[in-house]
Design a protein that fits this description.
- The protein has 7 helices and 10 strands.
- With 232 residues, the protein is α/β, with parallel strands linked by helices.
- It has a 6-stranded mixed β-sheet with strand order 6-7-8-3-9-10, with helices on both faces. A 4-stranded antiparallel β-sheet has the order 2-1-4-5, covered by helices on one side.
- Strand 9 and strand 10 (206-212) form a beta hairpin.
- This is Lantibiotic protection ABC transporter ATP-binding protein.
- One of its GO terms (molecular function) is ATP binding.
- Pfam families: ABC_tran.
Length: 232
C-alpha cells in the first residue's frame, strides 16, 4: 500500500480475560486519510489508544515512521481521542498557550493553528461558551500545535450539527496537502466516504477488511456485508 507512515501488526488488547482487540493489523499510507470503521464497541477507540500510547498493547507490534514505536514518536503525532480536554474558564488562545509552554513551542504558532481551524476571531470568548463544533475544532488545534506528521482523530464529528460536520470535513480534507496523514474512526459511513482514501473495518475486535476506496464511494453495502459476515 505504498510508503507507510504507520503499521500495526497483530495488535491485541485484553481487559482482564476479555479480548477487546484481536490480531488487528493496519497499514496507513503516508499522505492519506484512513478511516477506521466499525459498530460501537467494535474496538476502534481501543486500537487508536494503543497507537497513541494511551494504553499498552497486550500483544503485537507498532511500526511508526519506519521503526518500532517509541514514546519519542509522540512529538510527531497529534491526537484527539474522545472529547477534547479544555479549560472552560480560558479563551481558545489561553488554552493553546498552556500547551505551547509545556511543549516549548513559540506562541506565534498559536495564531497559525487558530486560523487553520477558523477560531482566530473568538477573542475573549471563554471556551465554556463555545459550541460543540468550536470545541472540536479547538481540540484539533491543540493536536496540531506541535506540527505533527500524523493526526489521529476518534469520532471527530460526534455531537456536531450538519454545519459543524461540513466545516470539520473540509478541515480534515485539507490536512494531506499540508503534509499531515490522518487516521480517523467513525461509525457514520456517509460522512467517512466523503473524506477517506483508505478504510479498515473492525467488527468484534477483529479487522475484517482493509483497502483503498474512491472518494465519495458508497461504502454502506461493503460495510454491512463485512460486519454481518463477522456475526455468522
Amino acid at each position: 500500500m505504498g510508503n507507510l507512515i504507520l503499521e500495526a501488526k497483530n495488535l491485541k488488547k485484553y481487559y482482564g480475560k476479555q479480548l477487546a482487540v484481536n490480531n488487528v493489523s493496519l497499514q496507513i499510507p503516508k499522505g492519506s486519510i484512513y478511516g477506521l470503521l466499525g459498530p460501537n464497541g467494535a474496538g476502534k477507540s481501543t486500537t487508536l489508544k494503543m497507537l497513541t500510547g494511551l494504553i499498552n498493547p497486550s500483544g503485537g507490534e507498532i511500526i511508526a515512521f519506519g521503526e518500532p514505536w517509541q514514546r519519542r514518536h509522540l512529538s510527531r503525532i497529534g491526537s484527539l481521542i474522545e472529547s477534547p480536554s479544555l479549560y472552560g474558564n480560558l479563551t481558545a488562545f489561553e488554552n493553546l498557550l498552556i500547551h505551547t509552554r509545556l511543549m516549548g513551542i513559540s506562541e506565534e504558532k498559536i495564531y497559525d493553528v487558530l486560523e487553520l481551524v477558523d477560531l482566530k476571531d473568538t477573542g475573549k470568548k471563554l471556551t465554556s461558551h463555545f459550541s460543540m463544533g468550536m470545541k472540536q475544532r479547538l481540540g484539533i488545534a491543540i493536536a496540531l500545535i506541535g506540527e505533527p506528521e500524523l493526526l489521529i482523530l476518534d469520532e471527530p464529528t460526534n455531537g456536531l450539527d450538519p454545519v459543524g460536520i461540513q466545516e470539520l470535513r473540509e478541515l480534515i480534507c485539507s490536512f494531506p496537502k499540508r503534509g499531515i496523514t490522518v487516521i480517523l474512526s467513525s461509525h457514520i459511513l456517509s460522512e467517512v466516504s466523503q473524506i477517506v482514501d483508505n478504510i479498515g473495518i473492525i467488527s468484534e475486535g477483529m479487522l475484517k477488511y482493509q483497502g483503498r476506496i474512491s472518494r465519495g464511494e458508497d461504502i454502506e453495502e461493503l460495510f454491512m456485508s463485512v460486519v454481518k459476515e463477522g456475526k455468522r
